[in-house]
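[job 0412] stage=complex_fold ligand=iron/sulfur cluster status=START
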Amino acid sequence: MKATFPHVGRMDIFIKGMTKALGMEAVVPPTNSKKALNLGVKYAPEFVCLPFKLMLGNLIEALEKGADTIILVSDRGPCRLGLYGLPLQIILKNLGYKFNWVTLDSPQAIKSSFQLGMIKGVEKYRDKLTFMDGLLAFHFGWKKMLATEEIERLSLKIRPYEINKGDTTKVFYQGMRAIEEAENLYDLKKAKNKAIRNLKNISQDRSRKPLKVAIAGEIFVVLDSFANLDIEKKLGELGCEVDRTIWFSTHILHHLGLDKFMRKSKRKAIQAARPYLKYHVGAECNATVGYAILYAKEGYDGFIHLMPFTCMPEFVAGGVLTRVSKDYDIPIFTVELEEHSSQTHLMTRLEAFVELLKRRRNQRSNQ
Ligand code: SF4
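[job 0412] stage=complex_fold status=DONE, emitting structure tokens
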């Protein structure tokens, strides 16, 4: 079996770490790029959301690399994500690709996929692998994921202080590569500690007072730096300390019901949004609204809402956020992302937003 999956953010590090520890082969598609986007745009329906187009392009690249099984971790709606599987399969089959398809959209689906032998080739490993092997492999992949997120969080904190623009990004990617290459837990710990040391050693101007900005929105575009035009890096270099609300690990923990004690969990955000949204709208909508409230209460200077163009749940969130912005006195900037979004256009708008936040902060301190 040569399984593949759509590339989202840094999820590949987790999957690669896990499959490697199991001795299985995973065909990891290249990170999202202009090439994947162009392929997706060429074959996807015009008005479908950006994540669909990127996933399609990404899967074409993986099939070209020899993948024979596609695993899609999905949702059951109410937005289009619940329906992604079928159109993706039809388009890929019409293009002449041959593959097995597995949709994992519930614990039951995961169980039956294995029972029915849909994830073909797993039988080959079943005799050799024990439950313990599976557990250890998951643990290794998970640890890699956490190490990546730890250095990513740190880089978001250090970037607004860096003296030489680009230093943080350079050191961060070096650290990421070392974590990706680590073969065992010992090497992984060494790679992570070295990355943390190197990040802390970057020359910084600690007299600066960075603006505090939170980012929330649709999960794919929040996690994927290609899809969001590297907005975190741009904000950091404009002097903002960014706090991202969604991480791969927090998303998993939320779905497992293990985020009860986290300070700003999705669970707490959904709760905070209740006065505005009584029902579950779908995807991240309720959480996006709630996060804006939680961060406003914490005194954040601004809030950025990322949404793919034509995304139903985030479109609803955008409407509610207009009220939240007034009620909680926090500037909110909604960025709609699609295949024509340009780096320059986004940069100009971000500069204007950051300027507004700076003036606001100055006015407040003068008062
Ligand atoms: S949440 Fe939005 S972007 Fe994501 S699949 Fe649903 S409609 Fe598309």
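The chain has 16 helices and seven strands.
[job 0412] exit 0
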